[in-house]
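Protein in question reproduced for absentees:

***
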Amino acid sequence: MKQPQIFIPLFFIGLILSAINPKEYFTWFLEVSPAIIGLLILVFTYKKFQFTNFTYFFILIHCYILFLGGHYTYAEVPLFDWIKEAFDQSRNNYDKVGHFAQGFIPAMIVRELFIRKKVISNQSYFNFIIVSVCLAISAAYEWLEWGVSLCTGDGGDAFLGTQGYVWDTQSDMLYATIGAICMLIFFRKKHDKAIQIQ
């Protein structure tokens, strides 16, 4: 029996922990806002459409990625500082985990909506359209980051998180695209099974 309500307290535990002494509250708010907005959308649409627990689980993981990035800022997550030093990288690459998830989880959400709502009749275009939607979401988020940075100046630099990398925006969108493709290749069968049980 499906009981996705268990994910709500887990969401708030992660949110509260990330709000305790973050690096900077303004950046924290910007980073966790998509998770809060996502929760509100899922709650308000729950009576009309419930996702599988499989999808809810990955949505929660994405929220935790956002919470961690919000707490430390994406450029200063300690584990990825260690990885940066250990592998002689030029930057903290935790933001790439976030952008990979920004493709992976939306691909799962869009795929489930498309299948269960029978949005696309011609299956030969199915995966292409899902990846395209995820790339559009990623591009829109890059516009949002750019807009916030323009409006807030130095205050938005931690949110933008380029760390001096000139190709940051393009690589963010690439990682989201890779995330979407990986979901479709490696998790399609498990997702199909979860949808059939629904």
